[in-house]
Amino acid sequence: MKSLRTRAMVYGLIILLGLLSALPNLLPATIADRLPPWYMDTTLSLGLDLQGGSHILLEADTRELIRNEHKAMAETLTRSLRDAGIHYSRPLLTEEEVQVPVRKPAELVEAAEIARELARETPDGVPHFEVSKVGGELVLTLTDTRRDALISDAVERSLEVVRRRLDETGLVDPGITRQGRDGILVQMPGVADPREIRELLGTTAKMTFHWAARSSADAMEATIFLPDAHSGEEFRLERRVAMEGKHIRDARMGFNPDSGEPVVNFKLDKDGAALFGAMTRENIGRPLAVVLDDRVITAPVIRSVIAGGNGEISGSFTTTEAGNLALLLRAGALPAPLHVMEERTVGPDLGSDAIAMGLTTGLVGAVMVIAFMLAIYGRWGLIACLGLGVNVGLLFGILSILGATLTLPGIAGIILTIGMAVDANILINERIREECRRGKPAWMALREGFGKAYTTILDSNVTTLIAVSLLFLFGSGPVRGFAVTIGVGLITSMFTAIAVTRLIMEWQIRGREREPLVIGGLAFLDRIGGGRLDFLRGRFVGLAASAILSLAAILLFIQPGLKYGVDFTGGTLVEVQADKLTVEALRATLHEHDMGDASIQESGDTGRFLVRLPAEAGEPGATAAQVDALKSAVNSAQADARFPQVDMVGPKVSGGFADATILAILLAGLGMLAYLWLRFESHFALAATLTIALDLTKTIGFFALTGVEFNLTAVAALLALIGYSMNDKVVVFDRIRENLRLTPDKPILQVMNESISSTLTRTVFTSVTTFLALLPMGIAGGAAVASFALPMLFGIVVGTSSSVFIAAPILHWLGHRRTQKGLPQLRPTAEEMRKELEMMP
């Protein structure tokens, strides 16, 4: 028993550390304030869907950067060609390349060499442009390396500018992270209306100073026409920048002492002060235009030298406008415009309701699972429940150490984990019961049961982890949180089932190791399993029925199709709370504001509506304006109307979600196929994959038939179902493989029937526990989790039945084909290969 005590100490230490890591989430503020900060930092943070707030996905518009790079290269090249005496025509600049026509064909080769030398004149010696000759033109194209470097640098600099701007606003704990190649995700807890923040972040704030053009005699190419920011009047200015806004060191809102109007007082750095003094000294009596994002804010006439490095910008500002302009100048200009591609807002009331719903449904589901385990296995079920409690504690502890964010899908993941974590315990208990029925003493039954269950548990969890990892790679935001929760939960459940539960069981039989062990169960299932029912007798009927249902699901997918959420269609979905409006009044109001294409749906209580607008085509970020326009329209009809939830997804983002979803599902199938091919034989892997495809089509048909919204949460459900259903198939196939090795001379049909019978109890019990864990969420979870809970409940039933009636018939058919080809059903083990080698002469 020394080994038992040693393991108890090691496992106890691991569990203690995990529970201590989870403890800060439960401590009241009075106690938390007395503990060291490094300990209290290991806590879960609530996602915006639970605490309320907004998140905005910004995309850097790098087209201007590329154009500037092309322009600079064109100017440098034409200057070099002119110095070399090579005749050329005016360059043509596009978003993809620079085209420079060379007038004399004989000079084209020399011109190309000059262009290549300029392209190589970089700090790192790596060419920035590829040079080619097309007809009589030089064509210069940015290299992929240079293009990626420009975009990456612009996004990194934009991150810093966005961070400074949000810090200036005093926003509490904003989350600012880079997402993808050119995206910036901004999360703002507690911000229910992000309109001002959105405008602040979307303003480039590129400030420049330009002198007014002296006369019409100036060369037209040296001048530009820019509109006044207020009146729209056009100013004719020198194209050359007299001074850039980067020299502004500080800017504050103030008031003009004479007029009392709000102004912006700025201070220049040392170089800027010297430059500003010199340029004003030489241009007294000349208008100097202050230009912000290609709009003239003001154009005062310089009356005297401004040599102190201080200046004032006036322009008929309001107090808010002057304050925002000062903030933008302090934070600096963005290197590229940022467009809002996705916006989601959850009101604080909706967040608190989500927490209450998640806790209630989770607790009810856990109680139902515990009650079921106690009713089936008695004290051995109590051991499984203790392991389940430890598993949940470790799950929260690891998530806290990782600094994870708990979201509503994350809560759903924890509830699903509770159901799936019992799977390993049921598998172990059933294996031990089998050994006990063979008359083995307690210690041997435990050893054999855990040993035989280990491989199955490993295979089934790895297949689920494949689906979850793809969900993490291709998901975003809360969906990733769901994937992390499931992944960590699978790892902790393996530890508690294989290590902790075994330790407690060995402690229970201490002193009675050679006595028989009795673990309860359901008598009628035992009789079915012992009776060796012929499950494959109706295999042809089962396969035909499954194929017909899948075909019907495909037809439903085509017509009427799925009810896609804005995640996939793009557009704006706003929950409106206006108790003084009817559907007709709201529709009329939106029609008056040119929103006649809006669809309106009453939601729950009187005065609650879901308003959906299609995505706006055109410039990037065009859909973002829909949110403000919709709110303004509703407020014009009822000033105190509220908007508890806003989802806005641009067409580019929604298209990316669709592509990522298809790719994730395909890769999940291929990944599982490859793993099972490696662990089993090819026909086992192919049978499991084909069965999963049939399960998946039926679940898609469920979405189409019931009208449950298909969104990113639904994708999480599909991938979770793929993993869960594959888990079931692996258990059955593992038993078939085991029995084929034990009795290779038996007909394969008989082996399959016996294998299905012996695993039937585990299959039913696991499905029941997972179903019970999710049932409260499916019933009372509401629309927020309907796209996850309802298809999961449906998928559990479909996946369980297909494990018994579909997967094995497909495997039998594929196995029969292998037999006809003279191939064995299983590859030889290392022990069998060794024996064959020993028997060879």
Automatic annotation (TrEMBL):
Ranges for domain Protein translocase subunit SecDF P1: 155-211
GO biological process, one term: protein transport by the Sec complex
Topological relation to the membrane, as annotated: Multi-pass membrane protein
Compartments where located: Cell membrane
GO cellular component, one term: plasma membrane
Domain Protein export membrane protein SecD/SecF C-terminal: 340-504, 631-816
SecDF P1 head subdomain domain span: 226-336
Record keywords, A-Z: Cell membrane, Membrane, Protein transport, Translocation, Transmembrane, Transmembrane helix, Transport
Alphabetical list of Gene3D superfamilies matching this protein: 3.30.1360.200, 3.30.70.3400, Multidrug efflux transporter AcrB transmembrane domain
Main function: Part of the Sec protein translocase complex. Interacts with the SecYEG preprotein conducting channel. SecDF uses the proton motive force (PMF) to complete protein translocation after the ATP-dependent function of SecA.
Name under which the protein is recorded: Multifunctional fusion protein
Protein's organism: Marinobacter daqiaonensis
